[in-house]
From TrEMBL:
Coiled coil: none annotated. Residues 56-231 form the Helicase ATP-binding domain. It comes from the Eukaryota. A motif (Q motif) lies at residues 25-53. The chain holds residues 203 to 439 of 1116 of the full protein. Residues 25-53 form the DEAD-box RNA helicase Q domain. Keywords: ATP-binding, Helicase, Hydrolase, Nucleotide-binding, RNA-binding. GO terms for molecular function: ATP binding; hydrolase activity; RNA binding; RNA helicase activity. This is RNA helicase. The keyword ATP-binding applies.
Amino acid sequence: EQEVVEYRKSLAIRVSGFDVPRPIKTFEDCSFSSQLKNAIAKQGYEKPTSIQSQALPIVLSGRDIIGIAKTGSGKTAAFVLPMIVHIMDQPELAKEEGPIGVICAPTRELAHQIYLECKKFSKSHGIRVSAVYGGMSKLDQFKELKAGCEVVVATPGRLIDLLKMKALTMLRATYLVLDEADRMFDLGFEPQIRSIVGQIRPDRQTLLFSATMPGRVEKLAREILSDPVRVTVGDVG
Ligand code: ADP
Ligand code: MG
């Protein structure tokens, strides 16, 4: 088995890793439930964007991924759709508590956008999504998390605060997304990210998305991802 570096379609799409799944052409190529397909259609998403067509089969196969693509390329659905599948695949959801999917984003605005995207796709599946970030009452967030959720979308600082308050446990967490990792590092969240990752079981699936890959982000990726596939779309970092 050898690591393959492959250019797909054009030089703009570069994929590297071991045994990389082939890209999909349509959402039909993913074995999504009819509920999820309906939710995608309702968004008006007719076909996957470049990053989605490469990343969806990789993430759906359970692999870790480093996704590098510029803003506006559709990265959110590339991690939210497989997360819904991942959660629905868990047996006996009610047995443990705490989120299954944990998504970290650099700012409250981004966390809120991701929260809305999660809600669109999870509503029809009975998946509970909580958003935790600064500027909102910590007590309200504490109560909401205590009531239970399957997904938490958070800024790193606020998530650490709530973990310290024991508002949630990471016992069930098996799907971790670090979105806009470069910006989280720029904002000084590296220690918080490392602390959060350290509280999640090592056999989790980990997804890291970034517009650029500075050395410190590259180092973190090497430390926390297992045998990742790297997908770069466009002329970036
Ligand atoms: P990124 O995270 O890469 O900056 P987003 O996930 O925020 O990008 O997506 C950018 C915009 O594209 C959003 O308005 C989103 O609703 C839209 N979008 C995502 N995927 C598709 C798709 N397959 N077809 C059409 N629009 C899409
Ligand atoms: Mg994004």
